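User: Please predict the structure of the protein below. I'd like the answer in structure-token form so I can feed it into my own downstream comparison script.

Assistant: Understood. Taking the following sequence of 95 residues as input:
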Amino acid sequence: MVGDSLEYTEPNLYTSLQLGGEIKLFSIGNINEYHDVYEYIHGNIHHKLFVEDNKLTAAILFGDTRDMGKVKTAVENKMAIDEYLKDKSNYRKVQ
């Protein structure tokens, strides 16, 4: 409506890429601003979660992207990393 003030919310950009049937990649968030990194590597699967102030702020999923919906929601809501990892014991903190 004319005269009303609106607040602009910058969207979280993400990329989803699939080349052939073998190469799958998903990324979201700004991987240049983080304090901690959590990693999962198993064969050709590489996942990295980037954390700022104990909140999930970015992620890269390579190989297996089935969790892209969950990680996208977690990044968009700045979910606490402990909450996101509560059912995922295969991640380890690397930085």
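That's the full token string. The chain has a mean pLDDT of 90.
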